């Protein structure tokens, strides 16, 4: 079982922010990634639709005998937190690991949370933070234009459109004086430089992908599921639409050539 892959899914490219950190933290693990590029974005869809898509994504990974499923998607983690009960293998979303880090790191108790509209409407991050510490003030902001920017490769910190959209969404959080911002959608770490430029160096940006990767390692260790082989693992990537665009942006983000490394599947079969 411990040589089986870790299964990771997202609506598109966002979950690569978790994969990038998994490759660093657990280089000997095998990874199977599924990006639902044919149905992205999830963040403005209904709860029922998001749940149905998440089950199909997880089923595809389970068919590939993964030892753990990671929903590297803030939206799925927020609106379908009960997925764990039905999968039969260890599971994590991104909300809890990210909240633990924010609670630990914020000095002034003012935390900003940015995410998709579905995530922000669910108040998932705010509720988890206030359950642990009711005195923390949590300021929430949905950023529906961030995912299409990332999926279209418009991510350069010097791009005028990126700068304008970042300012539009981040200005109220800046005025509120938050010292920590949770990047509560896994697509957003891909825009981290631009968001950091606007918020300034004194504001800590918490990468939900990174926190989730570190938490995944902890779960595998606790359950005795770590792959103990010495050499590097193998990462396989699947999408539900044409792979070209995914390969291009993934190459940039993972800093490795992904050309012809991504396969298309029919997710409706799962
Ligand atoms: N990356 C996902 C998230 O964390 C999904 C974004 C979307 O598809 O709207 O929310």
Question: How would the blueprint of this fold be written?
Answer:
Blueprint: E1 6-10, H1 16-25, E2 31-35, H2 47-63, E3 68-71, H3 74-79, H4 84-87, E4 91-92, H5 95-105, E5 110-115, H6 117-122, H7 124-132, E6 137-142, H8 146-151, H9 160-176, E7 180-183, H10 192-199, E8 204-207, H11 208-222, E9 235-239, H12 244-254, E10 262-264
Parallel strand pairs: 1-2, 1-3, 2-9, 3-4, 5-6, 5-7, 7-8, 9-10
The structure holds D-glutamic acid.
D-glutamic acid (DGL) binds next to helix 3.
Structure description:
- The chain is an alpha/beta fold.
- It has 2 domains: 6-92 and 210-269, 3-Layer(aba) Sandwich (Rossmann fold); 95-208, Rossmann fold (3-Layer(aba) Sandwich), CATH 3.40.50.1860.
- 44% of the residues lie in helices and 16% in strands.
- The chain has helices at 16-25, 47-63, 74-79, 84-87, 95-105, 117-122, 124-132, 146-151, 160-176, 192-199, 208-222, 244-254, and strands at residues 6-10, 31-35, 68-71, 91-92, 110-115, 137-142, 180-183, 204-207, 235-239, 262-264.
- It has a 6-stranded parallel sheet with strand order 4-3-1-2-9-10, sandwiched between helices.
- It is globular and about 50 Å long.
- The model has no long low-confidence stretch (mean pLDDT 95).
- It binds D-glutamic acid (DGL).
- The site of D-glutamic acid has 16 residues, from helix 3.
Bound molecules: D-glutamic acid
Q: Quickly name the level 1 CATH class of the largest domain.
A: Alpha Beta
Please state roughly what percent of the residues sit in beta strands, choosing from under 5%, 5-15%, 15-25%, 25-35%, 35-45% or over 45%: 15-25%
In the CATH hierarchy, the architecture of the largest domain is 3-Layer(aba) Sandwich
On the 0-100 scale, what is the average pLDDT?
A: 95
The H/E string reads EHEHEHHEHEHHEHHEHEHEHE
- The number of distinct β-strands equals 10
Radius of gyration computed on alpha carbons: 17 Å
Terminal CA distance: 22 Å
Low-pLDDT ranges: none
């Amino acid at each position: 079982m411990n040589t089986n892959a870790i299964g990771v899914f997202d609506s598109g490219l966002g979950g690569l922010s978790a994969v990038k950190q998994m490759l660093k933290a657990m280089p000997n693990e095998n990874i199977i990634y599924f990006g639902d590029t044919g149905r992205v974005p999830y963040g403005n869809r209904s709860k029922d639709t998001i749940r149905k898509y998440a089950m199909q994504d997880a089923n595809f990974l389970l068919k590939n005998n993964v030892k753990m499923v990671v929903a590297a998607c803030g939206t799925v983690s927020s609106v379908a937190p009960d997925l764990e009960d039905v999968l039969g293998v260890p599971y994590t979303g991104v909300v809890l690991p990210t909240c633990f880090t924010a609670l630990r790191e914020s000095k002034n108790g003012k935390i900003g949370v940015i995410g998709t509209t579905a995530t922000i409407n669910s108040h998932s991050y705010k509720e988890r933070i206030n359950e642990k510490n009711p005195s923390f003030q949590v300021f929430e902001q949905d950023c529906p234009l961030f995912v299409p920017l990332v999926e279209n490769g418009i991510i350069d910190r010097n791009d005028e459109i990126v700068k304008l959209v970042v300012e539009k969404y981040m200005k109220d959080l800046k005025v509120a004086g938050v010292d920590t911002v949770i990047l509560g959608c896994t697509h957003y770490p891909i825009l981290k430089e631009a968001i950091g430029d606007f918020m300034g160096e004194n504001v800590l940006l918490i990468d939900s992908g990174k926190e989730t990767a570190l938490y995944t390692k902890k779960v595998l260790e606790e359950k005795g599921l770590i792959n103990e082989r010495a050499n590097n693992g193998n990462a396989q990537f699947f999408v539900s639409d044409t792979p070209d665009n995914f390969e291009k942006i993934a190459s940039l983000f993972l800093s490795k050539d992904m050309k012809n490394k991504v396969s298309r599947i029919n997710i409706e079969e799962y």
